[in-house]
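REQUEST FORM: STRUCTURE PREDICTION
Request ID: SP-0412
Submitted by: Lab K.M.
Chain count: 1
Length (residues): 327
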Amino acid sequence: MPGWKALSDELDPDVRAFAERLRRLVDRSGLGVTAVAERTGHDRSAWDAYLSGSRPVPRNAVVALAEVTGGDPGGLATEWERAERAWARSDRRGEALDRDGSDGSGGFDGSAGADRSDSSGRSDGPRDDRTMQIRRLEPAPAATADTPPPSPPPSPPRPRRTLLLYVTATLGALLVVTAALLLVDLGGTGDGTDDRAATPPAPTTPTAAPSTGLPAGVKCAGPGCTGRDPEAMGCGGPLATTVARTRVGTVLVEVRHSETCAAAWARITGAAPGDTVTVKAAGATRRASVPEGADTDAYTPMLAVTAGPDATACATLADGSETCTEN
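STATUS: Completed
RESULT:
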């Protein structure tokens, strides 16, 4: 079972109650956070934030969690609405602080926006304004014999000459571009050879999956999925099904297959740190281990598999016992 971190004391009571309800659902299901993320179609990092109360939980994530854990949708919806109102109140307080630039403690205590007076009752702000006005109205000192006369103002620009220069520069630039295009169309260097034919095309980098024909969010298909994370490539969640399974005590081993991605992988749940799971297909193998910590599940990278039964999942436990699914 996951070892939960303590919730923050600063959480709203409704948000805290909702996060604790979600944690109890995950505990009772026997699934780890990684398995919850894969089966609900939401990232592991998102579920970490939802279960700590640090991020509002979208409604579709709550519905998906109720489906995979067997929770009561009605009760979850009620607690989610209370938590949603608490998050909305927090957002409005944050927006108010951003507009005011303070926590609302200032304003009328004379500490901001007011002219401060000295002990004689004279205000510094207005006195400075009157001084500046008086200085602007004082006549400039008369020039003396030792003072050089002021420089005459610069003559205004000549619009007509400026326009002619701009038009000339523009025409020159157009002529240069036209000449360059003509050289390219006529063969480049003009020595009778075609530079384009002599230069090999730049190599292209293969992508992980075809760029067309895949649903939104799916990033690979077939051989392009081999060795890749099914959750990161968008092949898990509702696009995956379990085509074979076996148990060793409380440990469940499954072959997961995505017809959309034409790939399969193995998943182990209810396991202990050090247990490993392997997927095999057409002589290729991928392996994963349950890490130390709170997780009790793991899944392997994918192998390109057209039909799910062509893949086999095997588990090797820390005590040496081993089991595999049957094709």
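NOTES: The beta strands are 241-248, 251-258, 263-269, 276-281, 284-289, 298-299, 303-304, 312-316, 322-324.
Reviewed by: T.R.
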